[in-house]
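My current task is to audit a protein record that another person submitted. I have pasted the whole thing underneath without changing anything:
***
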Amino acid sequence: MKRVRTGLSMALVAGVAASALVPLTAHAQSSCKWYGTTALKQQKRNEQLGCKFTGPQWHSNLAGHIAWCSSQPPDLWKASARERDKLLDQCAAK
């Protein structure tokens, strides 16, 4: 009986640990989807304003933006989005 309880306890712990990973993965995917769509909107604004920003951050490839985001820590992709906003605001003010 004690072995059954130990086995059930271990199974419960493993199940809880595994279920905790699902929301983190889903959240990360959702965050990178936000990043990618934001980057596309920023690129569109770049083109509309005629800012002519170029480089690895400035393109219209959603999958590319999402892939890059997925390989970076959140602080880095958030800073990247903020930096593009800053540059676009400066361009718009000219």
